[in-house]
Amino acid sequence: MQFLRVISQQLSRFTALVIILAAAVTFIEPATFSWVTGDAQVIVLGVIMLAMGMTLGKEDYKVLAQRPLDIFIGSIIQYTIMPILAISVARLFDLSPGLTLGLVLVGTCPGGVSSNIMSYLAKGDVAFSVGMTTVSTIIAPLVTPLWLNYLVGQSVEMDGWGMFRFMLLVTLLPVAIGSMLNILFQNKHWFNDVRAVMPGVAVLAFAAIVGGVAAVFGDQFLQSGLVVILAIAVHNIVGYILGYYSGALFGMSKPKKRTISIEVGVQNAGLATGLSTKFFPGNAESAIAAAVACIWHSVSGSILANIFAWWDKRQEAKNPTVIETEETVELGKPIRNH
């Protein structure tokens, strides 16, 4: 198990590289991930959310109870900035209806699957990150269909009620099961071993989602790749900026501002990809946009976390006698990656 723990840690550390590699392999040999469709894709998404749930215990729910205002503000910021920004960027780039759907779908999904580890690396507030991701995931079955219907419902036929039920199945149910297992068995050695391996399993599942989309829609991506990348990059980077300064507007500390920047900017594009292929199977471009976002968000989030960490080292080198007085990350807590 120690070997598997090490493998899991390395997979979590190099999430972006694993996802890029999966996409590259798929372009060379599409059959590698061609099985990740339909029910198989739903199961893979469920595994990702189960891994997230297995990181949530009683202490995390206490955090939600003790810091409701911060988490409420963060969730409102996320579900306001990213959907509105998505439709604005789509209009700015004059995207096709399919690409617009994909970008808005990414913008209306909950926080990203790797935002917690990115917040940790950025010396952010990990407990705040876990709280935001948890709440945004819990309310996603209601908020995502409503935003999607409001922003693109006139031009795209969608089953809002069906999407709500599907998101309950692939988000809340596996998260609830994972969390319940964690609460019941967190003191068991065997469960701690399994939980330690799950981040790596989630990364591989995430890569399989991207590979599955690339296998089905790879040709279409090559035809419209540049505009997709530009639109997703603008949406993501501006999300980081607006998230950070929104935190500043509410007087949050530096760790919290960094966390909210990452939580707002990094979306669960894997879930967006699954929703796209499930509910808009005839709209290939929407799945392409979501799949590209899977890769881009993982890469850019990791880079941003490293920039924050580099900036701190640079400031410490300039002012070695200055003692940091702001709130800092709780290093004693387990690192979470979901």
Task: Describe the overall structure.
With 338 residues, the chain is mainly α. It has helices at 2-13, 15-28, 38-53, 58-66, 68-92, 97-107, 115-121, 126-152, 160-185, 189-249, 254-265, 269-279, 284-318. Helix 2 (15-28) runs antiparallel to helix 13 (284-318) and helix 5 (68-92) packs across helix 11. The longest helix has 61 residues, at 189-249.
Main β sheet profile: none
Structural class by sheet pairing and helices: mainly alpha
| Helix count from the secondary structure assignment | 13
Report low-confidence residues grouped into runs of 5 or more: 323-338
Q: What number is the mean pLDDT?
A: 81
What is the number of strand segments?
A: 0
What would you say about this model in short?
The protein is mostly helical and 338 residues long.
Keywords:
single chain, 338 residues, mainly alpha, 13 helices, 0% strand, disordered C terminus
Task: List strands and helices in order, with pairings.
Blueprint: H1 2-13, H2 15-28, H3 38-53, H4 58-66, H5 68-92, H6 97-107, H7 115-121, H8 126-152, H9 160-185, H10 189-249, H11 254-265, H12 269-279, H13 284-318
Helix pairs in contact: 1-10, 2-10, 2-13, 3-9, 3-10, 3-12, 4-8, 5-6, 5-8, 5-10, 5-11, 6-8, 6-13, 7-8, 7-11, 7-13, 8-9, 8-11, 10-11, 10-12, 10-13, 12-13
